[in-house]
Write a structure and sequence with these properties.
three-stranded mixed sheet; alpha+beta; extended; about 50% helix
């Protein structure tokens, strides 16, 4: 067989390929020749073939068929074969493939080899791709080489030990004795790898961190020698002695000094020397200064040293290198919360970075600028940020607008300034603002009573200039509808009033309705504004015509509004002035009290909690049916949602007698019906006294089921034992009382009874709840319910509600009526809030 081509010839041939297909053909042809050589067990050219295979692997072609050949080269006695074999193993093998375990013994033998370069190859391979199994088997050999006097082997053994610790952290203590003398080595390579090893151990073990803190003075001494030493050609980089070692030592000092006063105090002086003596004209010096700044900010350093670090970052902002400016902005953004005043000194430089052409620098500068805003500089900073908002790319407008809104809301010096700023944002970047900006601005305008005339005039002018910014148009429409009379009367005192007629205002709003730029939401705002002006303007007939036109609009939302507004003009014209009067002042949502905000169909009204009546809980029909489906029942009887007053039982009976003529149970309708609930005013007519004098004093009883003379009533008692104090939630004892007011025959289970018991009820109560509750059914007092209200059966149901969820229950009854078995199913979802809150 002819000798294969050399690696150089293969590279030269591949480079002559003009197309990808031609290169692929060359590679496939050479791979076929290499496979043939491997099959013939040709030891002469195995090294050359594996080298070519590695080159193909670097080009992205598959070379996995050379893995076993790498192992054969590793087992060879020639150094050249071992070198290619170990290189191939590092490139083609990893711990996910079991083949790599076959080389464990070869690596162990080479770690004990008499030649340091063979030992170095084995250490490099183990430190590159050694699995956890290999690391456990070979950690002892690595630890021996770490103690050797050979600097070449010690630095490689230290890096290999780092990989072993990452794979098997429990072997960390094995290397602890060998680390004692590492920092006393004069060789910079050994020092560098030793610092890397110590850093890895400190990051992975708090015990190691405490152990190595005593090395801080020694590290400080090494760093000082590097700074003060003269020129050393072997380690000099751009006039700085071994910057790589300096950076590694600074990182280790940062870890050792974090949250430790003594260690931080020991390194304050050397950090100040590094910060003041390092040359900043070259990138090497900037790298050291950056690590110094990070170390100063992370340890418990002195205030003066922190100011010095921030000043270094300020100088970075003036650097021509964009990477350095970006790094400085990112670092300042991390420290602005802890050293706000020191960062404020560089505010002008940071603002100048907003004009940078690089988008990454712009974004970091914008974020840092918003972080610097406070009550003292709000006007100046907002001026710069609004200018940036005018000229920035669209990708920045949304974040910038949101930042301006938040800053203005937090630090606004006056309401007029606040309104002007928000309007400026809406005018500049209205299409990019958040969805909640419109209601927030409306709330701000509503609460600024003295600014109503000024605001509506400003918004009217903005509407005349531009109707493309939809949030601005929506706010303007709302304000014109609310305060259109102030606009026409010219009552503005803050600036010169404009002369506007009612017809001009209506022309603008009608123009919005027909504009192609208006969204459906904007048209809804405009139609509502026109409707509100019917109580503020005298042009009522014109407004009627406009509203009636949109009663046949293809937009369902707009059509519904128009139809409802037409009904106001016709049937409820006497109520129109009251319904369309100005909105009251809206306060922020509060946890309790009369200022709580309730959002209803887009309108915001303050709600006053009713302390006399507990709220009636009504579940939607679909939710009720979903719950009832768990029992597989189809014939569902909606429960009468009646909250009984705390009166004797006869009072409840009187109430049921009053409603006895009403059909309170649903028929066999195909569609699910909403549970029937009695309006509160019906209950109010029973007595002039409140339903519950003290809601928190007791939980009122309730009727859970009432049909065909059978009534189930629930009474409640909150359980309070010593063992429940550690539970998160509440435990309720729910007592069910079953009464029979008619003489019917029921049977809950198969059993015999005599004729004189024909009025008794043998009932079975099935009570499923949601999975968030825990339920305990105690034994009932009896299985027989006497007829004609001659007695009752009680049963205690204990409910544990750890998450304080609303109680929901189903009741399932089985009985026979005139010889026919009947199942009745009902859902109970009107539990008093006191029972679950």
């Amino acid at each position: 067989m002819p000798a294969p081509i050399r690696l150089r010839e293969l590279i030269r041939t591949i480079r002559t390929a003009r197309t990808q297909a031609e290169e692929r053909e060359m590679i496939q042809k050479e791979c076929a020749a290499i496979r043939s050589s491997f099959r013939e067990e040709d030891n002469t050219y195995r090294c050359r073939n594996v080298a070519k295979l590695l080159y193909m692997h670097m080009l992205g072609y598959p070379a996995h068929f050379g893995q076993l050949e790498c192992l054969k080269l590793i087992a060879s006695q020639k150094f050249t074969d071992k070198r290619i074999g170990y290189l191939g193993a590092m490139l083609l093998l990893d711990e996910r493939q079991d083949v790599h375990l076959l080389m464990t013994n070869c690596i162990k033998n080479d770690l004990n080899h008499s030649t340091q370069y063979v030992q170095g190859l084995a250490l490099c391979t183990l430190g590159c791709m050694g699995s956890s199994e290999m690391c456990r088997d070979l950690a002892g050999e690595v630890e021996k080489l770490l103690k050797t006097s050979n600097s070449y082997l010690r630095k490689k053994a230290a890096l290999c030990a780092v990989h072993v610790i990452r794979k098997v952290p429990e072997l960390m203590e094995m290397f602890l004795p060998a680390t004692k003398n590492l920092l006393s080595e004069k060789n910079h390579g050994v020092l560098h790898t030793s610092v890397v090893l110590l850093t890895e151990m400190c990051e992975r073990s708090p015990d190691m961190l405490l152990h190595f803190r005593k090395l801080v003075p020694q590290l400080v001494r090494i760093l000082k020698n590097l700074i003060m030493s003269g020129y050393s050609p072997e380690h000099d980089v751009s006039g700085i002695s071994d910057p790589f070692l300096q950076v590694r030592i600074l990182r280790l000092l940062r870890i050792l000094g974090r949250s430790d006063d003594d260690s931080s105090e020991a390194m304050n002086d050397i950090l100040a020397q590094v910060a003041t003596n390092t040359e900043t004209s070259k990138n090497v010096g900037n790298a050291i200064l950056y690590e110094t700044v990070l170390t100063i900010m992370d340890i418990k350093s002195e205030s003066g040293l922190r100011v010095l670090a921030i000043n270094i970052l300020g100088r970075f902002l003036l650097n021509n290198d964009k990477n350095i400016r970006y790094v400085a902005l990112t670092s300042l953004l991390k420290t602005v919360q802890t050293d706000h005043n020191a960062v404020q000194r560089h505010r002008s430089t940071i603002v100048d970075c907003l004009k940078d052409l690089d988008v990454s620098i712009k974004r970091r500068a914008m974020e840092l600028s918003f972080a610097l805003v406070n009550g003292n500089n709000i006007r100046g900073m907002m001026k710069e940020l609004l200018y940036f908002l005018d000229s920035c790319d669209p990708e920045f407008k949304a974040d910038c607008a949101s930042g301006v809104f938040l800053a203005a809301e937090k630090y606004a010096p006056s309401k007029r300034w606040h309104i002007d700023t928000i309007m400026r944002v809406l005018t500049t970047a209205g299409s990019y603002v958040r969805d909640d900006s419109v209601p927030n601005l409306i709330q701000l305008i509503t609460n600024s009573v003295e600014m109503h005339a000024y605001t509506v005039q400003r918004l009217y002018k903005a509407l005349l200039d531009d109707i493309s910014q939809q949030p601005l148009v929506q706010v303007s429409s709302w304000c014109i509808g609310e305060y259109g009379d102030l606009l026409v009367s010219g009552q503005c005192e803050e600036e010169e009033p404009i002369q506007v007629t009612e017809d001009e205002v209506l022309d603008v709003l009608e123009g919005l309705l027909v504009s192609n730029l208006s969204t459906p939401v904007t048209r809804g705002y405009s139609l509502t504004a026109i409707m509100k002006l019917s109580t503020r303007f005298s042009s009522v007939n014109r407004i009627k015509k406009v509203v009636s036109i949109y009663g046949s609009s293809i937009d369902v939302e707009l059509q519904q509004r128009a139809v409802e507004y037409n009904a106001l003009f016709k049937k409820y014209d006497h109520m129109r002035p009251a319904l369309l009067e100005r909105m009251p002042i809206m306060e922020k949502t509060a946890s309790n009290g009369p200022t709580e905000i309730v959002q209803t169909n887009g309108e915001t009204e303050p709600s006053v909690p009713d302390t006399k009546h507990p709220p009636l809980v009504t579940q939607p029909a679909n939710q009720a049916n979903d719950l009832l489906d768990l029992l597989g029942g189809n014939d569902v009887v909606p429960v009468i949602q009646t909250t009984l007053p705390t009166k004797p039982a006869s009072a409840g009976g009187e109430l049921l007698d009053l409603l006895g003529d009403l059909s309170l149970s649903s028929g066999p309708a195909p569609a699910p019906s909403v549970p029937i609930s009695q309006p509160p005013f019906l209950l109010d007519g029973l007595s002039s006294q409140p339903l519950f004098n003290d809601i928190s004093a007791a939980i009122p009883p309730m009727t859970a089921y009432s049909k065909n003379g059978l009534k189930i009533e629930f009474t409640f008692e909150r359980v309070s034992h010593d063992w429940t104090k550690n539970l998160c939630g509440s435990i309720i004892d729910l007592c069910s009382i079953v009464q029979l007011s008619q003489s019917w025959e029921y049977a809950g289970r198969r059993m015999s009874y005599e004729a004189d018991l024909a009025g008794a009820v043998f009932y079975t109560l099935c009570v499923p709840l949601l999975q968030t509750f825990q339920l305990q059914l105690l034994s009932p007092s009896s299985n027989i319910v006497p007829a004609l209200n001659q007695g009752s059966v009680t049963q205690v149901i204990r409910v544990l509600n750890p998450q304080k969820q609303q109680l929901r229950m189903r009741v399932k009854l089985t009985y026979t009526h005139k010889g026919s078995p009947i199942q009745d199913l009902a859902e109970v979802n009107n539990f008093p809030p006191q029972s679950w809150q």
